């Protein structure tokens, strides 16, 4: 048993939370979820239910405080089909985290709040790489705050909804062809609003169904600082040292249907499907303030994302009073079309395999962890706007731990 | 669980994470047993690396032929010797006026009508010595590109004469093995090339086009002569079943020399328009002006008054310059209609374009007949005109801003040359099932902005 536990502890360390959801979603909002490749909406395991299904929150037996942090590392490789050469991004890390609490107000009511980072990416290419006139580095950080209320209509039916306040920072730069070393740097902060709602329905003692909807969040980068450097004197008016621009980046809605079925005592199978509404991400266009509007045409990026489907299947088994094991598999369709892959976030269809466990230190204190990895097939395409022609491959690693304290 | 075990686990984790990187194989390149060891390039300005109206070191180093040779080297190609002009001044040559010209430069400032903008101007250095210095003792050279060379010059011994009255072109005699004896073709063939590029015919049409189709300055090479010249040259070049690549001629509507000044580039105020209407009151055919854009006035012997306004579709040539229209009265002053040398009329354009089509048809037939790769530059220049994205940069034929054409509006920049080299590579790869790598054109020099 001791060996088994230490084995799991090793696995905790290799979790790959930088996965699941397509595009730049990071559905690593709990380690119990990642251990089952994300198939959790019809489960009420711990406080993270507030994010995955507000309708299930009221079925938590106690109040909870929970949190977790991950260290994720991601690298992208690009092979030019023109020159045949391979470029790799530098190793860059993200620190996705989550922190929250739920309070059981009464038998029929629960409230809670969660702070998490459901979207993001961090990519840095070498300064001489073939796509330097498209992107050199790009980093998106998001922070969502979601206060939530859940109500038990009957012993079988619970509903819940939360308000989402989103905060984001998007920094990126690229080289400009006008002179050696010339580049454009963008740094913008945004806020956005949305909601998260869910219904949880226990069909019978063994089968539970859930329906959730997280709304689209439109990030409004109102004051993006744009700086141009190493510009030839003759173009100093066209590319001023500093300028201001606005842009909008929509984060997708996610509609999910899920089921949880207790096959035998202690073993639960979970199935879930998500429709990720990425098609709202058509383009990333910067509109410059006067008098720099002539730059608008130069800083338009077509994205043309499409809606993408995820299918998730997970199992959890109570091995002993102290240990619960988890495993899952997911197919995650990419929203990115082949001829619109961009080097900041090329993406591709992925298979996600997850395994994980939670360890009850005491009746109220749980440490959880997960290991998941994803395979993303090498993907080739010619971007219609930039002409970049080649294949992308991405690899992400992540490790982290989470805790849940109930009282 | 011991602390030791935990430590080992952590260590293992760090190793695994640090050791992983996404796998992607570099593309394998090969020559499919085509021998690129001795590559010889035949052609005119584009092959030589003439740019900004001149032949000089930097332009030659970035000729499409030199770039192509660099890529061929990755699949078994050999050294590529070029007849370099020393220094970065060099000189150009106006073939229809038979005079040396200085390199064209760019600057930014206030144009004649007080609007800020880019303008081109002639360099104050014309390094004729650098051009005329004989370097034939190192001949033959792999790059046999001679700016201004026509198909009839290929096998013409006079073309290598040091006497400009005979050669009509200073750019071959400087590196001919035996001036007045050797020809471009004999110098090419005696190197026993294993592979050649052949982009000939540009000047057969463009000397005339650039002279506004003024027949006393330059004429089009008649199709039959062009066919004979090409046929003779290719027959010598392919002897022994040699492999090579033939390129065709781009359309004049895709070169900024012919498109950067609009037919109605005359911008007038209400007052200016009224004044001109008074001056032209008795013109036949009638000419009227209005505020805004107006067609330029050109001389036309067939018009009763000897001048008329330009029609849509007719072309103004780059040497006219906007300054001379905006501030010197060219194309509006009754005494200054644009001369025949500076415009192409509809019928002239049709003749030129039809000839290009005929030339290209012949080049294509000959390429196929002789099992040579064929590069459709006519189609490629069309793509450039409509905007051609390459690794994030959109190239176009817009003068000074499009990145593809140099300051003469005819020849490419280093970046343009690299894109051209890529087109040659695609055609060779397709024809001979080779896998020659293309190049990142953005890495080559463009127009250096002040």
Structural description of this entry:
The complex is a heterodimer of chains A (407) and B (450). Chain A is 5% helix and 55% strand. With 407 residues, chain A is mainly beta. Chain A has a single domain (2-406), classed as Porin (Beta Barrel), CATH 2.40.160. In chain A, the strands form two sheets. In chain A, strands 1-4-5-7-8-9-10-13-14-18-19-20-21-23 form a 14-stranded antiparallel barrel. In chain A, strand 8 (157-175) and strand 9 (183-202) form a beta hairpin. Residues 1-20 of chain A have low confidence and may be disordered. Chain B is of the alpha/beta class and 450 residues long. Chain B folds into two domains: 39-248 and 346-443, Rossmann fold; 266-344, no CATH class. Chain B has helices spanning 3-19, 45-48, 57-61, 64-72, 128-132, 164-167, 184-189, 202-210, 223-237, 256-259, 270-279, 322-326, 346-369, 377-385, 414-432, and strands at 39-43, 92-94, 99-101, 104-110, 116-122, 143-145, 195-199, 243-247, 266-268, 292-294, 297-299, 307-309, 315-316, 343-344, 373-375, 388-390, 393-395. In chain B, strand 4 and strand 5 form a beta hairpin. In chain B, helix 4 (64-72) crosses helix 15 (414-432). The model of chain B has no long low-confidence stretch (mean pLDDT 94). At the A-B interface, helix 1, strand 1 and strand 23 of A face helix 1 and strand 16 of B.
């Amino acid at each position: 048993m001791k060996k088994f536990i230490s084995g799991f502890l090793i696995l905790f360390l290799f979790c790959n939370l930088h996965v699941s959801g397509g595009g730049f979603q990071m559905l690593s909002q709990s380690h119990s979820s990642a251990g089952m490749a994300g198939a959790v909406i019809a489960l009420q395991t711990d406080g993270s239910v507030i994010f995955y299904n507000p309708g299930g929150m009221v079925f938590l037996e106690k109040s909870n405080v929970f949190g977790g942090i991950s260290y994720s590392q991601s690298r992208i490789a690009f092979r030019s089909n023109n020159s045949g050469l391979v470029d790799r991004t530098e190793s860059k890390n993200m620190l996705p985290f989550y922190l929250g609490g739920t309070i059981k107000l009464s038998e029929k009511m629960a409230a809670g709040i969660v702070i998490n980072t459901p979207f993001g990416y961090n990519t840095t290419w070498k300064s001489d790489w073939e796509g330097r006139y498209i992107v050199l580095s790009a980093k998106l950080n998001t922070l969502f705050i979601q206060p939530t209320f859940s109500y038990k209509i009957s012993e079988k039916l619970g509903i819940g909804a939360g308000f989402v306040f989103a905060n984001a920072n998007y920094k990126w730069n690229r080289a400009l062809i006008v002179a050696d070393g010339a580049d454009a740097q963008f740094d913008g902060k945004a806020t956005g609003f949305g909601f998260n709602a869910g219904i949880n329905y226990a069909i019978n003692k063994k089968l539970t169904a859930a329906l959730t909807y997280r709304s689209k969040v439109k990030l409004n980068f109102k004051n993006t600082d744009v700086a141009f450097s190493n510009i030839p004197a003759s173009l100093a008016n066209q590319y001023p040292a500093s300028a201001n621009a606005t842009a909008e980046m929509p984060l997708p809605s996610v509609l999910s249907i899920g089921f949880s079925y207790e096959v035998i005592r202690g073993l639960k199978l979970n199935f879930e499907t998500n429709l990720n509404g990425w098609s709202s991400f058509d383009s990333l266009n910067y509109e410059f303030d006067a008098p720099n509007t002539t730059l608008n045409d130069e800083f338009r990026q077509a994205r043309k994302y499409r809606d993408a489907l995820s299918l998730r299947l997970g199992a959890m088994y109570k091995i002993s009073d102290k240990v619960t094991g988890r495993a899952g598999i997911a197919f995650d369709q990419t929203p990115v079309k082949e001829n619109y892959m961009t080097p900041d976030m090329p993406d591709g269809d992925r298979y996600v395999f997850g395994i994980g466990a939670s360890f009850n230190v005491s009746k109220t204190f749980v440490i959880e962890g997960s290991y998941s990895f994803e395979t993303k097939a090498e993907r080739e395409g010619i971007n219609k706007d930039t002409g970049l022609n080649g294949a992308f491959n991405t690899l992400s690693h992540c490790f982290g731990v989470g805790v849940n304290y109930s009282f | 669980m011991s602390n030791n075990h935990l430590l080992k686990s952590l260590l293992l984790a760090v190793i695994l994470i640090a050791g992983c990187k996404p796998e992607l194989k570099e593309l394998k390149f090969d020559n499919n047993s085509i021998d690129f060891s001795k590559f010889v390039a035949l052609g005119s300005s584009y092959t030589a690396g003439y740019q900004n109206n001149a032949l000089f070191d930097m332009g030659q180093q970035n000729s499409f032929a030199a770039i192509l040779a660099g890529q061929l080297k990755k699949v078994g190609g050999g050294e590529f010797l070029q007849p370099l002009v020393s220094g970065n001044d060099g000189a150009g040559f106006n073939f229809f006026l038979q005079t040396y010209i200085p390199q064209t430069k760019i600057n930014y400032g206030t144009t004649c009508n007080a609007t800020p903008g880019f303008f081109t101007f002639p360099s104050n250095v014309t390094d004729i010595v650098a051009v005329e210095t004989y370097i034939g003792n190192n001949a033959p050279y792999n790059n046999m590109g001679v700016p201004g060379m026509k198909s009839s010059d290929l096998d013409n011994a006079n073309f290598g004469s040091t006497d400009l009255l005979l050669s009509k072109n200073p750019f071959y005699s400087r590196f001919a093995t035996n001036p007045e004896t050797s020809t471009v073709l004999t110098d090419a063939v005696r190197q026993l090339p294993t592979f050649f590029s052949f982009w000939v015919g540009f000047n057969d049409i463009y000397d005339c086009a650039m002279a506004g189709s003024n027949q006393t300055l330059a004429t089009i090479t008649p199709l039959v002569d062009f066919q004979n010249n090409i046929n003779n040259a290719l027959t010598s070049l392919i002897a022994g079943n040699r492999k090579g690549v033939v390129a065709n001629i781009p359309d004049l509507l895709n070169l900024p020399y012919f498109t950067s000044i609009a037919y109605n580039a005359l911008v007038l105020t209400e007052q200016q328009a009224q004044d001109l209407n008074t001056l032209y009151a008795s013109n036949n055919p009638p000419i009227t002006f209005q505020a805004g854009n107006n067609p330029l006035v050109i001389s036309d012997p067939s018009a009763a008054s000897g001048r008329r306004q330009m029609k849509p579709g007719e072309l103004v040539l780059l040497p006219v310059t906007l300054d001379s229209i905006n501030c010197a009265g060219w194309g509006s002053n009754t005494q200054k209609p644009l001369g025949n040398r500076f415009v192409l009329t509809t019928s002239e354009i049709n003749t030129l374009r039809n000839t290009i089509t005929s030339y290209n048809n012949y080049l294509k037939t000959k390429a196929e007949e002789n099992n040579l790769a064929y590069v459709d530059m006519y189609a490629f220049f069309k793509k450039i005109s409509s905007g051609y994205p390459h690794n994030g940069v959109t190239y176009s034929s817009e003068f000074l801003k499009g990145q593809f054409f140099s300051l003469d509006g005819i020849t490419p920049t280093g970046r343009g040359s690299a894109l051209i080299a890529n087109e040659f590579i695609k055609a060779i790869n397709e024809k001979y099932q080779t896998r020659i790598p293309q190049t990142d054109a953005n890495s080559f020099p463009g127009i250096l902005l002040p």
